[in-house]
Amino acid sequence: xxxxxxxGGQVAVEFLGMLxxxxxxxxxxxxxxxxxxxxxxxxxxxxxxxxxxxxxSPGEREGACRQAAxxxxxxxxxxxxxxxxxxxxxxxxxxxRVPVLFPGAIGFPLDVRGRAGAVEEEKx
Length: 124
Prior knowledge:
Elements: H1 10-55, H2 61-72, E1 79-86, E2 89-99, E3 107-119
Antiparallel strand pairs: 1-2, 2-3
Helix pairs in contact: 1-2
Pfam families: TadE
Domain TadE-like: 9-51
InterPro entries: TadE-like_dom
């Protein structure tokens, strides 16, 4: 009597073969999410910084602008804030580093910039 070999366990073998590809795909997708979120954070922080700078007095503009941007950023995302005013327009630029897999750990050598401007408001 000959015994036929079945295909029992084939699914487990195929899954183990595909597991590295599945993990790499998930890691790449997560990294894309972090890049997109960093762009969103930079843009939002620049908007808030420009608004805060537009309503502040000229002597307090730089500090208010910088503080408003930093207040909008989570602790894991650190970055530089550059504020200025010229011709009645207050501008803000926020530069953030894109984190690698875990925010707060290491970052890519890729800087994301968010820029915004707001018209300077006059005080009565």
